[in-house]
Amino acid sequence: MPDRTLTVATYAAGASLAAITLIYVFAPTYFIDSAQPSTSSSIFGTKKPCVVGLSNPANDCFINSVLQALAGLKDLRLYLIQETHRRSRDDGHVYGRVVLLGANDEGSTDDFAGRKDLPEWKIEGLQAGIVSKGLKDILDALNERPIYKKTISAGPFVRTLEMAFRQRISRQQQDAQEFLQVVAERLCDEYHAGRRARRLARLQAAMADAEPRDSPSPATLQLGIANVTPASAGNVTDAAASSAASTRSANVEDDEGFPLEGRFESQIECLTCGFKPQPTESTFCTLTLNVPQASSTTLNACFDGMFKTEFIDDFKCEKCRLLHAVEVYSRRCIAGTETSQEEARSAVAKLQLAIETNPEKPPKGVPLPDLSEAPKRRIARHIRLTHFPRVLAIHLSRSIYDASNLSQKNSAKVAFPERLPLGGLLNQKKYRLRGLVTHKGSHHSGHYETFRRQDVPPPFSNPSTFQPSEIFSNPAITSSTRQLAVPEQRSEASSPITPVPDLLAPGSGTDSSVLSFDTPAPPQELSSPAAKSIPMALSPDSQIGNSEARSKGTTTEHKRKKRQQQDLWWRISDEKVKQASTSDVLGMQREVYLLFYELDREYR
């Protein structure tokens, strides 16, 4: 009896130790995973979502915040995937040859890439796409969905930048906008450099296919890349030129360009004579807007500060200067010798022709009066966006400079919307907020954080796997009808190997389910109890109504979950990650510094 009591006590003590061990080991993990439940769940219950953070060993918050914001841009990631895949599929010699001339397909010179003052080693790096590959790798790593807290380092991408520019990046307190501008312009440079290299390779392939009589020199290929005609390159036949032109035009149609690259033009108008010179077009990757010195303002007011009509006084208009010269020469026609009068009449005729054709090009051989004697006019300056980028990166400049050239931070509240409409009434574009970078601190020190929208990619599985497809079958045919047609198909088979018709071919075969639906079934099958239990007794209209009701319920539930998911954001501060809502994001009016909007699909 004492031995049995001792055995029971031993078992009880072992069970207690086991329970204590289980609680000690699994209780912390259980409470951590149970905190802040979200929509993602598993068979064991809800699980806290997680996102990859970035370590901050030496004042790297300006780098981490920009990379986290770029990781939430779908169009940028898609571009990087396509660009790196295209470079990996092309031959090595396509990007191995240095292309110095920078002219795009429309004939205008690129602002970023292809400058002749760049050294060859830098052009080789641009054509190789070093930074594009490095940025793709770091963004892919940041878009992982780990099952536990994970932190990586931005060191590999920083080393890629240092290798591309052959200089070190300072770890002092830096500006996130400057880092974003360096990365964005470098990516734009690599895009244009790779585009020109591929265009030169297509030109060489067209020349090789045309079998020229004399092989053109490398100088002819290099200088003729922008505008190639049979006259400029006499060794190229008409077939080769047309082939190169068609290939180039097809490439322009298929290529959507760099997603952060946009263009705006500046147009001035003389308020006296109404002359409008040729507008000046500029390219941008980040749009800088000045924040007005007020307690609170809006993003639309910041846009108005840049794109509103600006009036400038004391401007020397080209047309007004020519008109002034006509008046001067007209007075000489009245007074003076006969020779001077004849010269004055000839000058007036040339000036009148220049005024009617192009006032920006004064006639040659006609001396104009001194520029100081030209009349001063009042002009109006208009700036408008001509190419809307797919990803609009907005920089809110909060720097204020006083008379002593000392700078300080403008802490005005800037209200920004989640949906941003841009453009006129006839050409309006709508953008959606994807991320933002905030700054807390003074103008010379502080900390950057990132707000990034949570995205759940759509599943690749087909939700209607076991339902009839509307493409290859009649929607009115039910699955029970197809089950009746299966024995007929098997009975008709005369050999174990039968040809399978192509589903994509419209006339490849006859749908046996359609035949079985139209053909009346034998009466003995309809009178059997098994046949009565088949749901074919329901009319097709009733079955369609039931399926529509189920689909509507599923769609409503899917939309509700999608709205809840779209309202969730990540608040990322280096390796610290929290969840936030859209109201929390829109409330960061005093700290907002960089905004990232994506163009809606329907406006592209």
UniProtKB/TrEMBL annotation:
<keyword id="KW-0812">Transmembrane</keyword>
<dbReference type="InterPro" id="IPR001394">
    <property type="entry name" value="Peptidase_C19_UCH"/>
</dbReference>
<keyword id="KW-0472">Membrane</keyword>
<keyword id="KW-1133">Transmembrane helix</keyword>
<keyword id="KW-0645">Protease</keyword>
<dbReference type="InterPro" id="IPR018200">
    <property type="entry name" value="USP_CS"/>
</dbReference>
<dbReference type="GO" id="GO:0006508">
    <property type="term" value="P:proteolysis"/>
</dbReference>
<comment type="similarity">
    <text>Belongs to the peptidase C19 family.</text>
</comment>
<feature type="domain" description="USP">
    <location>
        <begin position="52"/>
        <end position="600"/>
    </location>
</feature>
<feature type="region of interest" description="Disordered">
    <location>
        <begin position="479"/>
        <end position="565"/>
    </location>
</feature>
<protein>
    <recommendedName>
        <fullName>Ubiquitin carboxyl-terminal hydrolase</fullName>
        <ecNumber>3.4.19.12</ecNumber>
    </recommendedName>
</protein>
<keyword id="KW-0788">Thiol protease</keyword>
<keyword id="KW-0378">Hydrolase</keyword>
<feature type="transmembrane region" description="Helical">
    <location>
        <begin position="12"/>
        <end position="32"/>
    </location>
</feature>
<dbReference type="GO" id="GO:0016579">
    <property type="term" value="P:protein deubiquitination"/>
</dbReference>
<dbReference type="InterPro" id="IPR038765">
    <property type="entry name" value="Papain-like_cys_pep_sf"/>
</dbReference>
<keyword id="KW-0833">Ubl conjugation pathway</keyword>
<dbReference type="GO" id="GO:0005829">
    <property type="term" value="C:cytosol"/>
</dbReference>
<dbReference type="GO" id="GO:0004843">
    <property type="term" value="F:cysteine-type deubiquitinase activity"/>
</dbReference>
<dbReference type="InterPro" id="IPR050164">
    <property type="entry name" value="Peptidase_C19"/>
</dbReference>
<dbReference type="InterPro" id="IPR028889">
    <property type="entry name" value="USP"/>
</dbReference>
<dbReference type="GO" id="GO:0005634">
    <property type="term" value="C:nucleus"/>
</dbReference>
<dbReference type="Pfam" id="PF00443">
    <property type="entry name" value="UCH"/>
</dbReference>
